[in-house]
Every structure is written in structure tokens, then in C-alpha cells.
Design brief:
The chain is mainly α and 153 residues long. It has helices at residues 4-23, 41-63, 67-70, 73-95, 97-101, 109-124, 129-149.
């Protein structure tokens, strides 16, 4: 059986190393204002998928289309609920797309990467929450302390 805690520590160390490399680089400012001429094609795709899933879920719910294809009423109810829920999440993502393009100034990039990796590791092995949670907390505190003492150049 693989040692998941050792794998998690290696992943966190590489994430912190990549964040140190990114700190030295200057980030380009991205125009995310509402009056930007060019809208992102990804936002249109996400909005279209959200609309398609919500319409498909609504049609399946109100007309019972697909119940005979899925085989049972419970499978139909599950598929309909899944379509509506994923459509709602994609709709929320579509609404928040402009603010998602700007990185959060208060969140260090290495900590964001480590948080996502920590979520994936905990999803695979829930017992590792006892190790991952404090590790992410310590990384957050250390990055905040480093940010305070960092000199501006």
C-alpha cells in the first residue's frame, strides 16, 4: 500500500517551490472590467453548458422524458437532479467568471495550489485530514509572516 502521507508531503513541497519561483516574476495586469471589448470564449461555453443542462433537467423533470430509457423512476430522478445541480453550479461559475480571472491578492499562489492538492489527497484518504489540515495551516501562517517581512523592490 502506498504511503499517502509521504506523497502528500512531496506534492506540498513541490507546490511551495513553484510558488517561490513565481514570486520573483512580475505578473501582468489583466483587464477584467465589464467594459472590456473581447469577452472570453470560455465564459460563453460555460454559460451555454449551464443553459443546456438547466433546460435538459427542466424538460426531463416536467415531461418525464428519458424515464423509459434510464429504466427506472429513481434513475430518472437522479439524472434529472444531477443535470439541474451541475447546471446551477456552472451558472454560478458563469456569473463569477470575471472575478475568477483576477488572482486573490491575499492568497499566496503556492497556498492555493497546496489547498487544491490537499483536498484531492483528503478525498482519496480521509484519514490524512489530521495531517493535511495542520500542514496547510502552518503553510498559511508561514506565508503570511514571509509576506510581512518581505522587502519591496
Amino acid at each position: 500500500m502506498p504511503n499517502y502521507s509521504r506523497i502528500a508531503w512531496k506534492i506540498l513541497a513541490s507546490a511551495m517551490e513553484s510558488s517561490r519561483e513565481e514570486e520573483g516574476k512580475k505578473r501582468e495586469r489583466v483587464d477584467t472590467s465589464a467594459n472590456a471589448v473581447e469577452t472570453s470564449w470560455r465564459r460563453r461555453v460555460i454559460g451555454g453548458l449551464a443553459l443546456v443542462m438547466l433546460v435538459a433537467g427542466g424538460v426531463a423533470y416536467f415531461t418525464s422524458v428519458g424515464e423509459e430509457t434510464l429504466g427506472s423512476a429513481s434513475a430518472h430522478a437522479f439524472a434529472t437532479a444531477a443535470l439541474v445541480r451541475v447546471g446551477l453550479v456552472l451558472g454560478a461559475l458563469w456569473l463569477a467568471w470575471d472575478s475568477l480571472r483576477r488572482p486573490a491578492k491575499w492568497l499566496p499562489p503556492g497556498l492555493a495550489v497546496a489547498g487544491v492538492i490537499g483536498i484531492v489527497v483528503v478525498a482519496a484518504q480521509p484519514r490524512l485530514l489530521l495531517a493535511i489540515g495542520p500542514a496547510l495551516g502552518v503553510l498559511g501562517v508561514l506565508s503570511a509572516v514571509m509576506r510581512v517581512f518581505r522587502t519591496k523592490s
